[in-house]
Design brief:
The chain has helices at about 5-25, 35-65, 75-95, 110-135, 155-180, 235-240, 265-270, 295-300; strands spanning about 105, 110, 190, 220, 230, 240-250, 255-265, 280-285, 290-295, 300-305, 310, 320-325. The longest helix has about 35 residues, at about 35-65. By secondary structure, it is of the alpha+beta class. Helix 2 (about 35-65) packs across helix 5 (about 155-180). The strands form four sheets. Strands 3, 6, 7, 10, 11 and 12 form a six-stranded mixed β-sheet that branches. A two-stranded antiparallel sheet has the order 1-2. The protein has a two-stranded antiparallel sheet with strand order 4-5. The protein is built from eight helices and twelve strands.
Length: about 325
């Protein structure tokens, strides 16, 4: 493979990885499973492309050393970019193959998959700077010369096909190796942890949950409604309960499915007399955190007070927690 081909393929592949990675934060629906498959495939193709890229890096460093010009910002940025990319991929592979503990207690108490995407976001400015400073400038031509058209040679086309085939083989190998591990994965790649075990599953926030004074706590429904509702904890429990089976799929790489009990948002909106022109519902927590759902999504959601047969504990949001199955 020529250096030109490898660099261009890496550039396109990395852009696609970043784009698909960002999109994965917006969905964990089963119909979007193909997007997770695409991201995994692009990661395998990246591993393949890093093999010839390593030779290019060492040749470039050798030239810089021979000229005594290696001590500059561009070189250090390129070295950091390459090293951080390798470490990010190593964390993802270690998580997939169960070679790393569930949590890593480094600077942050975080999963290896979390470190993978933290590093990925940190790489963005270095990737942009590296591409900007190393992008080949067009050669000067006579005014009458025709513009140069980027063409793919037969050799480069065969090489690109080879990268694609090796990427497929790599995905198959990773799936086979991951299948030998002692954990079950969801289609998102997240490990299934303690499903249907009440409060016994990881928390989704690193912040210490607040202690709520039930005497003063109120659930308030206001806005574009006919009447404002203000319910105490006892009032909420007195409304009866609805059960929803919903999956928490955390961006740190674990997932857990639970039976949640509580009051449906549809019931609360009906009691408050929601305006027919309302389009969305905003939820605000005692911590100041908030989420916005469309009216249709909100009607499928639940204000949960129990997980299975257990009352929510403090870590999981006592006295009440929003659960949105969609």
């Amino acid at each position: 493979m020529t250096s030109r081909f490898v660099n261009l393929a890496l550039f396109v592949n990395t852009l696609a990885l970043l784009a698909s990675g960002v999109l994965l934060f917006a969905t964990n629906r089963a119909q979007d499973a193909w997007l997770y498959g695409l991201h995994r495939y692009l990661g395998a193709a990246l591993l393949v492309l890093l093999i010839p890229k390593t030779r290019i890096i060492f040749r470039s460093l050798a030239r810089q050393l021979s000229r005594g010009k290696w001590l500059n910002v561009n070189t250090f940025a390129a070295i950091f970019l390459a090293a951080a990319l390798v470490v990010s991929l190593a964390f993802a592979l270690g998580w997939t193959l169960n070679l790393l503990p569930f949590y890593l207690n480094l600077i942050l108490y975080i999963t290896p998959l979390g470190l993978h995407w933290y590093l990925a976001f940190a790489l963005v400015p270095f990737f942009a700077w590296h591409a900007y400073t190393r992008w080949p400038l067009p050669k000067k031509r006579a005014p009458a010369a025709a513009p140069r058209v980027l063409k793919l040679s037969r050799r480069e086309a065969i090489s690109l096909l080879g990268v694609g085939i090796l990427g497929v083989v790599g995905i198959g190998a990773l799936d086979a190796l991951a299948g030998q591990t002692n954990f079950v994965r969801r289609f998102t790649g997240s490990r299934v942890v303690n499903s249907f075990r009440g409060n016994d599953f990881p928390v989704t926030s690193s912040d210490a949950p607040p202690r709520i004074d039930l005497a003063s706590w109120r659930l308030r429904v206001s806005g574009r409604v006919a009447r404002t509702l203000e319910l105490s904890y006892a009032d909420l429990l007195a409304l009866g309960w609805t059960t929803r089976t919903a999956t928490v799929d955390c961006t740190l790489g674990w997932t857990s499915t639970q039976n949640w009990r509580g009051v449906s948002i549809a019931d609360l909106l009906e009691r408050a007399g929601v305006n027919e022109h309302a389009r969305e519902v905003e939820f605000r927590a005692s911590t100041g955190a908030f989420a916005t759902l469309s009216l249709d999504e909100a009607r499928e959601a639940l204000i949960a007070t129990q997980i299975g047969d257990e009352v929510l504990n403090q870590a999981h949001g006592f006295p009440a927690r929003l659960v949105a199955p969609t």
